[in-house]
């Protein structure tokens, strides 16, 4: 069988995967939701024809968007995940022993339902008493909750459609205000190869609002360019100063106490984005 799914990243780059079947396809009020099965990476979630995650490589992204920040804080108790309808980020947060409550605010119920039905390998147990699921706009939720969360994770789609506002300076100010006094946030911030001006702007905004801004890296094979940035804004705790020997090792596949520090070692072309 030679059927391919093609993601048109831009006019000059496409990403393709040979696939065996379409498991789910629906148009929600927000986007086109599809789950396909691929030969190389197993089941894959596509939103508006853009790869969000796959069973084969999701661990990198979900471990890195959660554990780096969680292990920077001495005692993260309340965590908010904005977006992340596939459920992988919430699943990883729930593995942290000090977390008492995870609020999950996703705008599109269709993504949550598709993940619960077709991607049980990725998503979380929806009946876990520590999870509060809110179907709604993360921007509104963050604006309405001051001084509430120890950590906020922005696990959003690319900066188009309902996700545009999740990358604005105004939103980062509300995130700052929604965090407790020594809280921090982490956002996925796209490719250092293909989105340099975008990352520079985000870093500048976060650095002007938070006492400390940091960029770190992970490798996500299904995202354009593979190398991926995460940006952190933190009020007090510096992720680079975390004592690796104090990190409780989890049974993770990408994140580890050594990877925690290594993720902040940036090649010069990425460091240049912070100037
Ligand atoms: N890891 C993924 C990536 O980088 O491609 C992101 C995965 S997750 C599926 C992104 C989710 O963000 C989507 O389910 C989308 O519905 C949600 N989203 C977009 N804008 C949102 C908003 N304003 N509030 C809450 N969720 C939002």
Structure characterization notes:
It is a single chain. With 275 residues, this protein is an alpha/beta fold. It has two domains: 3-54, Spermidine synthase, tetramerisation domain (Spermidine Synthase, Chain: A, domain 2); 58-274, Vaccinia Virus protein VP39 (Rossmann fold). The chain is built from eight helices and twelve strands. The protein has helices at residues 58-70, 88-93, 109-118, 138-144, 169-178, 196-209, 257-262, 268-271; strands spanning 3-10, 13-27, 32-38, 42-47, 50-54, 78-83, 101-106, 131-135, 149-155, 179-188, 212-219, 227-234. The strands form two sheets. Strands 8-7-6-9-10-12-11 form a seven-stranded mixed β-sheet, with helices on both faces. The chain has a five-stranded antiparallel β-sheet with strand order 1-2-3-4-5. The longest helix has 14 residues, at 196-209. It is globular and about 55 Å long. It starts with a strand and ends with a helix. S-adenosylmethionine binds at residues 30, 47, 52-53, 61, 82-86, 105-108, 111, 137-139, 155-157, 162-163, 166, 188.
List keywords for this structure.
275 residues, alpha/beta, Spermidine Synthase, Chain: A, domain 2, Rossmann fold, 2 domains, seven-stranded mixed sheet, 8 helices, 12 strands, 25% helix, globular, binds S-adenosylmethionine
